[in-house]
Amino acid sequence: MSSPSNASLSEFLNQPVSREAKEKLLQQRGLVVWIYGLSGSGKSTLATALEHRLHAEGRFTSVLDGDIVRAGLNQGLGFSVEDRLENIRRVAEVAKLQCQAGLISICSFITPARAMRELARKIIGPDDFREVYLQCSFEACARRDVKGLYAQAQAGDLKQFSGKDSIFDQPDSAELVLDTENQSIDDSLSSLYQLVASRIQPAG
Question: With the CA atoms of 43, 45, 50 and 52 taken in that order, what torsion angle do they form, in degrees rounded to the nearest 10?
């Protein structure tokens, strides 16, 4: 594509490339898939599996994972209610920018409080937001304990742990609830993919 002439350069600088143009280029519609649940419920596993499936179809995706984001963008935040809310606010703003650029942004965060999920939905916008709750009991997650966090919490070495010392509000607005305690990963992924696929097809 040729560059704009000098005469029209100022016009281009004052007119950012539209979301519609970016989505047309990518042949997909932007979307934020917000996957949440207790630690060990399968969030990262399903987020990664969904990304691989979409990537295999030629979709442009991005995964925002709680552990990775806290190690970089939000490394200065703790686990108080206020810091957790700020953590989600920042992530939602990043996911919104990715969505407006035409990406499928897959977010994987515990997001324990209903107010946090409501904030994320408000920032991103309901048309671009799909809330997915992974239903898995505290006991089942503790048996998995893939990161050793439940053992630390039980020993009193980890405070403000979701589902134990800190609240976890059950969902009331999720577009999809997946029973990852009793359902296979393949079945959960199939349901998750169907939810996403119905929204990301390009217009026209």
Answer: 150
- What would the pLDDT profile of 11-44 be if each residue is shown by its tens digit? 667 788 999 999 999 999 999 999 999 999 999 9
**DSSP labels for the chain?**
-PPPPGGGHHHHHTSPPPHHHHHHHHTS--EEEEEE-STTSSHHHHHHHHHHHHHHTT--EEEEEHHHHHHTTTTT--SSHHHHHHHHHHHHHHHHHHHHTT-EEEEE----SHHHHHHHHHHH-GGGEEEEEEE--HHHHHHH-TTSHHHHHHTT-S-S-BTTTB--PPPSS-SEEEETTTS-HHHHHHHHHHHHHHHHSPP-
Rounded Cα gap, residues 74 and 1, in angstroms: 39
Cβ–Cβ under 8 Å, residues 176 and 195: yes
The neighbouring-strand residues paired with 33 are 106, 130
